[in-house]
Design goal:
- The protein has helices at about 10-40, 45-70, 80-85, 100-125, 130-155.
- The protein is built from five helices and no strands.
- Helix 1 runs antiparallel to helix 2, helix 1 packs antiparallel against helix 4 and helix 2 packs antiparallel against helix 5 (about 130-155).
- It has a single domain (about 10-155), classed as Ferritin, core subunit, four-helix bundle (Ferritin, Up-down Bundle), CATH 1.20.1260.
- It is mainly α and about 160 residues long.
Length: about 160
């Protein structure tokens, strides 16, 4: 059945492509955060273990919301490691870094998600796609706040 939500198919495709990149970044960040949750050690163990759990739990919900928006626009959401690796701007971390390096890597990944989300706005604005723009705004707020909280652990 045809989709008639007031956004042209070409515009929906552009937005879905951008959201697919955001989905890949978000899922990659989810995996990185969960990995660090499992493997963190040192004097900040308890704090970071709990903080990382809170973060990956939030990211798991976000992945679903982003994928569902892609589907609502009429396109298939990427869902394989191969697709995520091709689409993501966030690279996997080799080995198990020290706790402070984990924090630094997560700050960088959170900021990558913000940049990806921000890059999709022009397509949303051009198509008057407020639901996608709202989703992007929410994601940027979460990622910017999380990056700030993580960054504050490295100061002082």
């Amino acid at each position: 059945m045809q989709i008639d939500i007031g956004i042209k198919e070409d515009d929906r495709a552009k937005i879905a492509d951008g959201l697919s990149r955001l989905l890949a970044d978000t899922y990659t960040l989810y995996l990185k955060t969960h990995n660090f949750h499992w493997n963190v050690k040192g004097p900040m163990f308890q704090t970071l273990h709990l903080m990382f759990e809170t973060q990956y739990t939030e990211l798991a919900t976000a992945v679903d919301e982003i994928a569902e928006r892609i589907r609502a626009l009429g396109f298939a959401a990427p869902g394989t490691y191969k697709q995520f690796a091709e689409l993501s701007s966030i690279k996997e971390t080799e080995g198990v870094p020290e706790a402070k390096e984990m924090i630094k890597l997560l700050v960088e990944a959170q900021e990558s998600c913000v940049r990806t989300a921000r890059s999709i706005f022009p397509a949303c604005e051009a198509a008057a796609d407020e639901p996608s723009a709202d989703l992007l705004t929410q994601r940027m707020q979460v990622h910017e706040k999380t990056a700030w909280m993580l960054r504050s652990l490295l100061e002082g």
